[in-house]
Design goal:
Blueprint (H helix, E strand, L loop, with lengths): L1 H18 L20 E3 H4 L4 E2 L21 E3 H14 L4 E7 L4 H10 L2 H5 L17 E8 L28 H16 L2 E4 L2 E7 L20
Parallel strand pairs: 2-4
Antiparallel strand pairs: 1-3, 4-5, 5-7, 6-7
Amino acid sequence: MRILASFSLFVALACATATSPAPSPSHPPVEAGTFRAPDLVELVRLDPTIHLDIRYATTNNFARRAVYKEARAFLQRPAAEAVVRAHRALAAQGYGIVVFDGYRPWSVTKHFWEIVTQKDRDRGFVANPAKGSKHNRGCAVDLSLYWLATGAEAQMPSTYDEFSDRASPKYAGGSAELLARRDLLRATMEKEGFEVDPGEWWHYNYKDWRSYPILDVPFERIGNPK
């Protein structure tokens, strides 16, 4: 009986180890190299016609709680200026840009990693805080399109932060209209030096993201741009 009990305990511990996520780091990764000085600017101060829908300042997000104290969006200045150019170029097609998220403090990335399942980690829906996120560098932006005529958000093949196959920029299902709209956004962003994330049609990484350090500065400590 002792042998059976010991074996059962071993199996239980092994299963727990296999299914329980590894603990996340307690501080941002230390990186070697030389980086540009951060210059985070607020998108709507460069162009107030960019719309904001900062989900992480509300409960309308996959975390089901507000993780930002302020509904604001920042990017490193070159990336921010590139988003503004894309926004203005899209006007010819009747669209403007709506931003869901930009710069994200590292501590928020850590929180996201801790609350999702291992399956969603493995599928790349959240960044590993041990490596940091391009959002943490101020060089990633989550965005979509809105109609200039009405101000309403334009429909896409999936909703924002949808953990499904429809989130992929290569997803071929849905209507031709939705796919064309998604691809228009991608083509416009790529012209301005962004690359779409392979798993999320709304997530764009700026070409110079490697030049900036990982940051963990809360929004309320970021001053207004010059």
